[in-house]
Amino acid sequence: MFELSEELTLVRDTARDFAEHELIPRATKHDREAHIEPEVLAKIGELGFWGLTIPEQFGGAGLGNLALSIVLEELNRGCAATGVTVSVHNSLLCSPINKWGTEEQKQTWLPKLASGECLGAYALTEPGSGSDAAAMVTRATKDGDSYVINGTKIWVTTGSMAGLVLVYVRTNPDVPKAKGISAFLVPAGTPGMKVGKKEMKCGIRGSPAVELEFDGCRVPAKNMLGQLDRGFPIAMDTLDGGRIGIAAQSVGIAQACLEEAIKYAKVRVQFGKPIAHFQAIQHKIADMQTKIDAARMLVHKAAWLRDANEPCGRQAAEAKLFASQTANFCADECLQIHGGAGYTDHFIAERLFRDARITEIYEGATDIQRLVIARAVLA
Ligand SMILES: Cc1cc2nc3c(=O)[nH]c(=O)nc-3n(C[C@H](O)[C@H](O)[C@H](O)COP(=O)(O)OP(=O)(O)OC[C@H]3O[C@@H](n4cnc5c(N)ncnc54)[C@H](O)[C@@H]3O)c2cc1C
Question: Do residues 219 and 144 touch, judged by C-beta distance below 8 A?
């Protein structure tokens, strides 16, 4: 666990090289123009990162969550908007299709998802159901061989670029709320599914978060992922994997903050010497490095457990809780070390500060991670 295998070292170095040469130079542009350049998405496909966890028989790399978290850390060190796109695609769409999909669903979708020809999104949240996801009201009603979906999903990451969306809907209103939910694979362009408002966000601006409106959207019954009314456990298990991805994103952002802080502290001269010579600055650097090391180990442990098919809900929540707090701690210290310059767009510290903030909110806010951990520990 403390030393990467030769294979994982190669995967990490490939992702690091891509981040250095393709993402870091573009991250500010992605942020200012609120989009990810298409050539970046194409290169991610060439490197095989869209299909990292998809089995080789479906065109993927056949690697696990540990490999994914290592890649995600590197990509997010370069550009968090790109990083979350890869995370959502792999963890929240490819992974549940691979785990619960029928042979036909896998044959139809996994090769396209592995190549990046089709990007993936995950639509759980609604205006009235965020942390309490099971309170969703979007409905799917059976009509012959199809289901007809009506309702609204919000903040769907990649929703406007996705070729396939995993949509969670209520199929039975007469049972306790988590027991009447099913999951459907809805291809882009299905009549009745419309991309609505795109949010203006504080950070990760290159990653679109959009509303998806469903108005009489008819999908074949064979597009159901898993069993009728058994979709909520799929959503929750999928989020365990997703949280490891966001924890890895957090470590990548934190690492970028540390590197920027060190760079600036070595060249900014005050009182006749670089500020890196002051012990107060050194303590900040020491705390950042220590928290990053600890966060990375939590991420790797949770990913390793998931790869071993061991229960990892608590460990994924611990990794997300600690790593997202670390990202925000490091972003704050990085900006502080830059002084006034950090509050301007002369340096990337201000973007990192904005990008870090979301890690404590999506895929379960910090309070929800604590709730998951406490429940497991007290049980
Ligand atoms: C940029 C962005 C991208 C997103 N991408 C997606 C996506 O791709 N797909 C998707 O389905 N969703 C997505 N989301 C939604 C995201 O997962 C939710 O925002 C998140 O789960 C929190 O829900 P909420 O915003 O409704 O907050 P609320 O649930 O309203 O919570 C508000 C506050 O109350 C706290 N709180 C709530 N319940 C409790 C409790 N029981 N105990 C203690 N504190 C509590 C929360 O921690 C939070 O601080 C995205 C959101 C954003 C902002």
Answer: no
The domain that holds 332 is classified in CATH as 1.20.140.10
Q: Is the CB of 157 under 6 A from ligand 1?
A: yes
Mutual orientation of helices 65-78 and 6-18 as an angle, nearest 10°?
20
Number of structural domains the chain divides into: 3
**pTM greater than 0.85:** yes
Same domain, 183 and 85: no
124 lines ligand 1 (CB under 6 A): yes
d(CA 150, CA 353) in angstroms, rounded, equals 38
**Ligand 1 within 6 A of 314 CB?**
no
- Domain extent for 279: 232-378
Please report the atom of ligand 1 found closest to the CA of residue 168: 11
Give, to the nearest 10 degrees, the angle between helix 349-357 and helix 80-87: 30
pLDDT of residue 1: 56
From the CB of 367, is ligand 1 less than 6 Å away?
yes
CATH code of 161's domain: 2.40.110.10
1 domain residue, yes or no: no
**What confidence score (pLDDT) does residue 96 get?**
98
96-155 tens-digit pLDDT: 999 999 999 999 999 999 999 999 999 999 999 999 999 999 999 999 999 999 999 999
Nearest CA to ligand 1 atom 1: 209
CA of 358 to the centre of ligand 1 (A): 10
Give the pLDDT confidence of 8-42 residue by residue, as tens digits. Answer: 999 999 999 999 999 999 999 999 999 999 999 99
Write down which residue in 229, 248, 276 finishes a domain. Answer: 229
Give yes or no: 39 in active site. Answer: no
Best mutation site among 234, 236, 358, 362 for ligand 1, i.e. most ligand atoms within 8 A of its Cβ?
Answer: 362
